[in-house]
Structure formats: C-alpha cells, structure tokens
Amino acid sequence: SGAWDNTIKLRGLDGKLVRTFAGHSGPVVSVSFSPYGKYFISGSWDKTIKLWNMEGRLIKTFKGHSGWVNSVSFSPDGKHIVSGSADETIKLWGIDGKLIRTFKGHSTFVNSVSFSPDGKHIASGSLDNTIKLWGLDGELVRTFAGHLGPVTSVAFSPYGKYIVSGGWDNTIKLWH
Questions:
Q1: What is the pTM of this model?
Q2: Fewest 10 Å CB contacts: which of 14, 129, 135, 150?
Q3: Contact yes or no for 28/3 (Cβ under 8 A)
Q4: Smallest Cα–Cα separation from 24: which of 54, 38, 44?
C-alpha cells in the first residue's frame, strides 16, 4: 500500500507488516505488482515512478512527468509500465526506465491507467469525465463519455471485452 507519509508498506494477507519501502519525497498514491510478483512499482506526487524488488531494493527511478503521478500499472508480460499524471499525459515506459511514448488527449489530470489483458491497449480515466482507449502506438482508438464527474478508476475485464469505470458522480459504468 502507498501512503501519505511517502512510504510503501508490504503486508501479508494476515495484515502483518513484512517491509517498509522509503524513497519517495511525496505521497505514494499508486502501486502495482509485476505479473510474477518479483517486482512492484510505485507512483508518487513527487512526479516519479520507482521500480522495487521484493527485498526492498530500489531498482530504478523513472522521471519524465511534470505533474503528480496518479496511477501506475505493469503490462501483462511485465516488459512495460504505463503511468498517468496530473500533467494530462499517459506515458509508456520500458522496464529499463526508458520512455517509449507519451499519449496526449485528456484536458486535465489523468487519474487511472490500465493495460488490456492482451497488452495491446491502454485505458485511461481523467478529471475531464472521460475514459480513453489507446493503442500502444499512441493512437486514440475511442473516447467514452457518460460520467457526470471525474473518472477515478478504470480496469479491463479478464478477457478484454469490457472496461469498467468509477467516478465522482457516484456511478460505476461498464463499457463495450
């Protein structure tokens, strides 16, 4: 879990603290495990993404956003990371920390990002009340509009047929 004290806490399912990770200089607002659980990433309001191993070692710091990093996610194959930021962009990174592509299209903060199960698309949710579906080449595939307030969370269904979104309008929407 990420916290306002700038740390990440790793806990067992029994709730016991396993390890505390420190290294961000701002609140940690998003965390995500790699597909096989060897690593995890954290996104912070310090505008960075950090890649950690489970033993507590910081592997890499990703820099490139000019605003808070609100959401991070691993690709299904573990080779890429996507991040969404208050700078209105989505960034696709290699696991080595190299920036591959910047996606632009939202008119304000990006709150949530998610990879499709096949790793071919990214969904993003924003304070602009929309969800956007992107190809990895940076092409905007579709914009979903219907929320009456900011979109705070997006996720794909297990087979990638649907996107679910939650927003400040107190609704959950299912998109096809």
A1: 0.95
A2: 14
A3: yes
A4: 44
